[in-house]
Amino acid sequence: MIEGARRALARHPTLAGAGGSALALLAYLTVRDPHRPSAPLACPVKLATGLDCPGCGGLRVVHDLLHGDLDAAVHDNPFLLVCGPLLAALVVRSRAGAAMPHNQVLAPRLAYGLAGSAAAWMVVRNLPRWPLKPAVG
Ligand SMILES: [Zn+2]
Predict the structure, then answer these.
(1) pTM of this prediction?
(2) What is the domain partition of the chain in residue ranges?
């Protein structure tokens, strides 16, 4: 089984790199709390504009899930909570499965749909009365 996994990773080095990076990030978020204002990873969109981007709160969502706090994860970024695993599964499936034309990662309609949904999410979450703001502090 280990030899089979080793051969599969050798055939898909991008997946191996992404998987290793994801494991490193999970290990980091297990011990570091991104809710603290002194967290070293800040969003460049938030820093430049003051607006929450579609991904703001993503590290906090992962941290919350690693610590079993689903309520806090929903509060930090419900869009990523739903779309993140879906997008990851689609990318892994497309990279590991059948080849897409022109080396595409996602089908164009799906990619445009996700991009439009992310843009709509960014607008909604920055409305003045939107109740779910990423928790910091
Ligand atoms: Zn952001």
Answers:
(1) 0.70
(2) 2-125
